[in-house]
Design brief:
- 2 copies of one chain form a homodimer.
- Chain A has 352 residues and is mainly α.
- Helices cover 37% and strands 3% of the residues of chain A.
- Chain A has 2 domains: 150 residues, Orthogonal Bundle (Cytochrome Bc1 Complex, Chain D, domain 2); 137 residues, Orthogonal Bundle (Cytochrome Bc1 Complex, Chain D, domain 2).
- Chain A has 15 helices and 4 strands.
- In chain A, helix 11 crosses helix 14.
- The termini of chain A are far apart.
Chain lengths: 352, 352
């Protein structure tokens, strides 16, 4: 070992010390404090239960058929899946959806994936659960436009095989084929649309499930204050909040949020906080569907909700964390049902 | 053995002789002559080959994604599957389909299932194969309404993951992402949409695969003359024929059939003979989508094409046979793909 080698060794030690001392350069693991993790819960079961509508395999199978069945629309053209496409994480990736006679919807269509975790349904929370929600779009004249509940029941009931399938899905009921049961079956299916992600692995103890950048993004997500609303199992979906809390959010969209339900002035522009699972895939963002890039959505939220200006690197790290929420769609949900044929009495589609 | 018993035995023999002598009451098997069976061929392989576009697993997988991808439409709302829904045997079950800005299509949408067996594509046969066909609806202003091929290529090419998937599906090509290759991939997927049925089992020797009524329907189908056009592996799809051959077919539909392609007067109202596989499921019938009941379609065809009046029982038996053509959709085809997300540069949807 000569003197030259010893000098080089000293230089290397010096560089090592500098690297370790400089947090921006550290190569050590990013550690996420335990209390940060306690703000969330991982997906565990395969369905979100509802005591009033137990999730059974028969009901889920029927619900999947109805979810894909365009006969629930007046035109015979729209199914639930048309706008809440399972191939694109339960959304259409459009600013707002197209409905009967090319009606343009007033608001961005939320995803059905993990929506069972939401404390209420629709942006303004007008439905208390998925069972109530599923009854809306079928009758909405701007969406599926069925004239009334009876027409929907009649159309579906005219399909001989459905009568048997309803009887199996709702055993012991005197009249299994009702509008409520159509909604219950669809909701039961939707209760299985849960997408476990790398973040769930991380929450359940697999420390290497997130990269350092994603962990740093998670820390920033908590420390910036995003978890004030985006927390729990849905990473949101559990509360209502004003859009533009500390600074007005400018939009041409006419939706008034919770005010539409309560008629209380303070509920103007108050919307359900969306869950952020699969947010990478469910662009465009916000109730107006105006923002297409996740980074822009993050920056805007920090600005108008929290009064914080994020740097590009902070924004990028938070977005990287949010992409770790992209989960796996259950295989069974992606298996398309084969729909039973209409009968002689089936109400014909109408394009008018 | 007493005399009374002997008398009863004679009565039973008498009844038996009467039953056997009366063809309407026979309990013997219906036998379908071999030469009748030679008019058809069973589905054997899992894909219909095309030398110019070999069907590979990579291409089929990509084709399935594109088939479900609404980004191939201007509005971002319509995919191939919107009108050729795999959940309903590759049709929409509508008289005609709805396109961009609620355009109502001029003709009934044919099924994609088993369409690879067709000698030509579209009702007027203007595309020689599925590879050529798939290029049409994307650009049709009444359907998916993409302004031009370049826009479709640009939209799909802006999806990062697609670039890799195209490279794998079209290995060795300098520029794998082209409009022709979009169509080739979709066509490769469609070449796998084959639905073996009980009739195929029957054709390959399983005599009990059809009921006696269905066998009788098959005999009547041949003896009435239906197999003049509805023959081969597709039970149709192999030729063109005038709609209203012996008697005018009255319709408000403006389609002129093969005349639109050839401009020959004798091709007026000449349409591609549709294949009858899954015909039970692909109502409403004919190029105008005017007829909803299979029995009515059978009766009308016999009348206007063959000048024959079928009895109710003959019509019913033929319809029963036709229902034995309802096949099994390949499991792989029913597994929905998960579509890759758009990029920052992806051309936005336009509803105008």
């Amino acid at each position: 070992m000569n003197a030259g080698f010893f000098e080089k060794w000293k230089v290397l030690v010096f560089i090592g010390v500098v690297l370790l001392a400089c947090p921006g350069w550290t190569i050590a693991d990013v550690t996420v404090p335990k209390e940060y993790l306690a703000l969330f819960q991982p997906i565990t079961g395969i369905a979100v239960p509802n005591k009033e509508n137990p999730v059974t395999p028969e009901k889920v199978e029927l619900g999947k058929m109805l979810y894909h069945d365009p006969r629930l629309s007046k035109s015979g053209f729209f199914s639930c899946n048309t706008c809440h496409n399972l191939a694109t994480y339960g959304v259409s990736n459009l600013p707002s959806d197209i409905g009967h006679k090319w009606a343009i919807g007033p608001i961005n269509g939320p995803t059905v994936m993990n929506s069972a975790y939401n404390a209420a349904q629709f942006w303004n929370g007008r439905a208390k659960d998925l069972e109530e929600q599923a009854k809306g779009p079928i009758l909405n004249p701007l969406e599926m436009a069925m004239p009334d509940e009876a027409s929907a029941v009649k159309r579906i009931g005219s399909v001989a095989q459905y009568r048997d399938i309803f009887a199996r899905a709702f055993p012991g009921e005197e009249e299994p084929l009702t509008y409520d049961n159509i909604a219950r079956a669809i909701a039961a299916f939707e209760r299985t649309l849960l997408t476990p992600s790398r973040f769930d692995s991380f929450l359940t103890g697999r420390g290497d499930a997130l990269t350092d950048r994603e962990k740093n993004g998670l820390k920033l997500f908590v420390e910036t204050g995003c978890t004030g609303c985006h927390n729990g199992i849905g990473i949101g979906g559990g509360s209502f909040q004003k859009m533009g809390l500390v600074k007005p959010y400018r939009t041409a969209n006419k939706a008034e949020g919770r005010f539409e339900v309560t008629k209380n002035k303070e509920d103007m522009n108050v919307f359900k906080v969306p869950g952020l699972r699969n947010i990478e895939m469910t662009y465009p963002y916000f109730h107006d569907g105006n923002v297409w890039q996740l980074e822009e959505a993050v920056r805007t939220m920090a600005d108008v909700q929290l009064g914080k200006k994020l740097s590009d690197s902070e924004t990028g790290d938070i977005a990287a964390f949010l992409k770790s929420l992209t989960g796996t769609i259950p295989k069974e949900a992606l298996e398309m049902p084969v729909l039973p044929p209409s009968g002689h009495e089936t109400l014909r589609p109408s394009f008018d």
